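Model the whole thing, not chain by chain.
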Amino acid sequence: MSNVIRPETMDELRSALDRTTPFSKFLAGGTDLVVAMRQSGLEPDTIVDLSGVSGLKFIERDNGMMRIGALVTFSELEKNEILRKHAFCLAKAASQVGSVQIRNMGTLGGNVAHASPAGDCITPLVMLGATAVIMDKNGDCSEKKVSDLILSPNKTSLTHDAVIIEFRFEANDAAYRSDFIKVGSRSTVTISKINIALACKMEQNLVVDIKVALGAVGIKPFRDYETEHAFKGMVPNDNSAGLFASAIRKRVEASIPGRSSLAYKRHAVEGLAFDIFHSVLRPISG
Amino acid sequence: MKLNFVVNTKKYNLDINPALRLLDVLRDHLNMTGTKEGCGEGECGACTVIMNGKAVNSCLVMASQINGKEIQTIEGLRKNGEMDLLQEKFVEHGAIQCGFCTSGMIMSSKALLTENPSPDDEAIKQGIEGNLCRCSGYVQILNAVKDASSAK
């Protein structure tokens, strides 16, 4: 039977970290861990239940830096006005995770730490260049890019005695517009087969900056720097969405060569890329 | 582990295995069998209860997480011997066939109507997106929820 520790303060959390082993698990929302414990007979020696820790549930913007506590739920992300304004893509991704019940429990920290290749909120975080703030058992904090923290499916560089407490990314420029789009095996309550996060800054009709990340089409979500480079500095015309879509398709073909799902993913991603391009790269009017 | 929590306005202070699921606590420790276990993995919603005002899958909540929380189950809907309006409307519209999804379906609808008393059809569909019904085709359920809302 697993030993359960239930820290309530950051100090109790720090001392809980000291009692973990490589066979321990953290529980944030529980929507992944509780299933894993029943279905695959996973029995951690210690479970650190983070859900009672106060101080890890905040969404704020300080001097243009967005800060999100690791225990913020998908429902909270989805409804947060600051986030909808400054990083719409992340609020949108959160709104499309699972069902109402899952979104009411599942957390951003859990989504990243679980490191599913299809984790919906990971793609926007990678696109935004977000970092995770990680606390170790001495109470020392360090920052690591989410794109470096995630190594491969369900694997991160986190050691057993360290925990994500916060995410940060720059959100100091209101001129950026962003979106998130996904496709799964059904229209809602579905796991991503492909997802895309796109952000763009336009000045009149000129693309001043563009960032795009793709999820569920590789061992982890990743930025597509080549496509970003090709579209930065351009003035979109009627052909641009098609060119963008074929650039993204090529990136997916290169990422999962030979995988059986490539046959449909190469077409599906083109449609998604076309749609998200139109949603984000509209010329600024008025 | 000592856990303090409230179920249907009654306070509990129990010493239970914190690695159990909320579903097991309700059914096996409190003998509240109105909450059903369907898939046991958060797909079907049959085990839905309301925790601190939010619909959750009780099969995915670990007992240690309910400490300090307020939980409402289907058993808590009846007041003074009278059914909740939602329950009445489910009966009236034939939204119950085999009945296995019903308590979860009603708890999701209850959470929805508490947050949004006059949802449109889309909002109702989203409110019950995490609840599967294999009998009805959902039309009767949608009509029952609409009839129980102030938007009818």
